[in-house]
Specification:
The structure holds two protein chains of two kinds. Chain A is α+β, with helices and mostly antiparallel strands. Helix content of chain A is 36%, strand content 24%. In chain A, strand 2 and strand 3 form a beta hairpin. In chain A, helix 1 runs parallel beside helix 3 and helix 2 packs across helix 3. The longest helix of chain A has 19 residues. Chains A and B meet through helix 1, helix 3, helix 4, helix 5 and helix 6 of A and helix 2, helix 4, helix 5, helix 6 and helix 9 of B.
């Protein structure tokens, strides 16, 4: 039998993690956490169990303005691994590699896209599947790299016109019965990273980008024109 | 700053080959090896933040900002507020990192707790305007904001899922409304149409049942 006081603290910790303690209770509890290691363990007990729910959360598209806001809120020097000047330095370093290469269009684009992921300083691991998405006239328009951890990196390689009130929406289709499933939204032509460990990734799985109303397709199915479309393939790394 | 110093402290002990700019460039030409392994855990990154390593914070951001916005959005319901919560959370992570004790709990849970606390603060901050009806409608159509949906999305092998499943449905709903959507005792009572005191004791008994079930 757990002694009463301990049982009470464990419940209190559970209520704290659930978020139902009111402001004053929560403040008082947090003051206790800072001096009582046992209480910290109780909190951790519940956090480690409830984290399963957070692991299932659908990650949202991260606006590119967010990190600069954080940096300016923190002040001081910038990160050592920033994407600013380092990006161009690395691009420069890589130019030697590109000289003399003579791949055909789509293949070069594919390799370039993989390299862009690495060069951008995002320390991207090897993708599991890469899809080159083509425009209706057969030009490479965007690349999707699908990683083992479920992240999907979508990199446009041409400019898409996104009128006001519209957004780009990325879809994937692996099961005709299920139909296309939304991967996420991109508000304008730019790289976007989605965390979708809930989605399969396979060869011959279709990836496409459509133009949809702001906020995404109201029907959760593509309604707008298909801008680019392509099949997943194994990258030869 | 020399090229070598640009390598984050938490990266060097993972892949020594990444320790200088030349081998980084070589790594690029091999097309694949990244210098920052996905396997470095969040605790190590937080500890590095505590030492003043801004790159470690950026790595947390790269990995978790999307999920953090998702968690905050379920509580505050509005996208721009969720982003504000996440911005504040990163400042809080940075300022509190030195006090993080990796021996007590996982770094990821610590990060998500900060997001949840900041979200609750924002939600309960009465000086803020309430969400408009349209926002609420938007949130309602966002399936992920639905706490039942969060339950459905739990991995099948999750002990939490199995044990929540054993709870009486309305009690389970109470637990999920609290954790997922940040509802207070009073709000849960109103939603489930039970007295406030009953709500409180339901939640406590649910916690006891969950603990017994997950033991």
């Amino acid at each position: 039998m757990i002694p009463n006081e301990k049982a009470e603290d464990l419940l209190l910790a559970g209520e704290y993690v659930l978020g139902v303690l009111d402001g004053a209770e929560r403040d008082a509890f947090e003051r206790r956490i800072s001096r009582e290691p046992l209480l910290r363990e109780h909190v951790s007990y519940w956090q480690e169990r409830f984290i399963d729910i957070d692991n299932g959360v659908m990650p949202k598209d991260v606006p590119p303005t967010l990190w600069p806001k954080i940096e300016s809120a923190l002040g001081g020097k910038r990160a050592a691994t920033q994407t600013g000047p380092r990006f161009s330095e690395r691009l420069w370093e890589s130019l030697g590699f590109w000289r003399g290469t003579s791949f055909a269009g789509a293949i070069a684009s594919l390799v370039l896209a993989v390299a862009v992921g690495l060069l951008a300083g995002r320390a991207t691991p090897q993708p599991r599947i890469v899809a080159v998405m083509l425009t209706p006239d057969g030009q490479p328009g965007a690349i999707a790299e699908v990683h083992y951890n479920g992240s999907i990196n979508v990199i446009p390689i041409r400019d898409f016109e996104v009128p006001k009130g519209k957004t780009l929406q990325v879809w994937t289709l692996w099961d005709k019965e299920k139909g296309p499933i939304s991967v996420g939204l991109i508000d304008r032509t730019r790289q976007a990273l989605f965390h979708r460990s809930d989605l399969p990734a396979g060869q011959q799985q279709i990836y496409e980008i459509t133009l949809e109303p702001e906020g995404g397709s109201p029907t959760n199915r593509p309604t707008g024109p298909v801008l680019v479309k392509g099949f997943g393939a194994l990258p030869r790394l | 700053m020399s090229a070598g110093a640009a390598v984050p402290s938490w990266a060097t002990n993972v892949d020594g080959n990444c320790a200088d700019a030349t081998s980084r460039a070589n790594a690029l030409q091999r097309f694949g090896t990244s210098c920052v392994s996905e396997t470095i855990d969040h605790s190590a990154l937080i500890v590095a933040c505590g030492r003043g390593d801004r790159a470690a914070l950026q790595e947390i951001y790269r990995r978790e900002a999307g999920a953090m916005i998702g968690i905050a959005a379920r509580i505050v319901k509005r996208r721009e507020l969720a982003e504000e919560v996440v911005q504040e959370s990163f400042v809080a992570i940075w300022r509190n990192a030195a006090r993080f004790d990796p021996s007590i709990g996982s770094g990821r849970a610590w990060i998500f707790q900060i997001v949840r606390n900041r979200s609750l603060n924002m939600l309960r901050d009465s000086s803020r305007e309430m969400p408009t009806e349209q926002d609420v409608l938007d949130a309602a159509v966002d399936a992920d904001a639905d706490s039942e949906n969060a339950f459905e999305r739990l991995a099948n092998n999750s002990a939490l899922k199995r044990c929540l499943d054993e709870l009486e449905p309305r009690r389970r709903q109470g637990v999920l409304l609290a954790f997922v959507e940040g509802l207070s005792h009073g709000e849960i009572a109103a939603k489930l149409k039970v007295p406030l005191g009953t709500t409180k004791s339901w939640l406590r008994r649910s916690l006891i049942a969950l603990r017994e079930c997950m033991a």
